Amino acid sequence: MIIGRLRGEVAAIGLDNILIDVNGVGYVALAGSRLLSKLSVGAEAEVFIETRVTENSITLFAFATDDERAWFVRLQDVPGVAGKSAMALMDALSPAELMDALALGDAATITRAKGVGKKLAERIVGELSGKAPPMGRFGQFTADPSGSVQAAATPQITGSRAEAVSALVNLGFAQSDAAKAVASAARKDDAAETSALIKAALKELSPA
To answer: What is the DSSP string of 82-93?
Structure first.
């Protein structure tokens, strides 16, 4: 059985994990400090789960969005990035920040994650730069408005960036060039919507 999402009452919060009571069954899941700070004991919460099964254990990793969970999985495609490092990366950087760092070859931003040094950060950039962002397990879940983690639902800005990159690729630009241009445009205007990002990115891509 693979657990993909849990919704229930937060029964306890630890230093790096949570206990969620779902209809009388308590699930323990590892979680980063950013997610833990949004939760409170006794409140309802919805978290997205990546389940890892080994011969000796079953481990649940909890995330505020399925987008974060998907990036957690993608990061572990890089040699040397295990669950602990991938969790630290998703705790230090939002999906949008990670996409920008990869597109711009910004290894320094990736070293903000605890335990991720310069060499590993450069390897992550080298392996994932220019690749399309990962999809969620079923495209994208829709957050329940009653969930207490509503503020952590998938940011519109992340979707805008992905849509802008996709539009530029459809116009004939290379994935890596489109991602870099959109990342550069987004850093100048972090709140820009898709159309504005495309317009700004086209200026970045156009010859002077």
So the answer is: -HHHHHHHHHHS
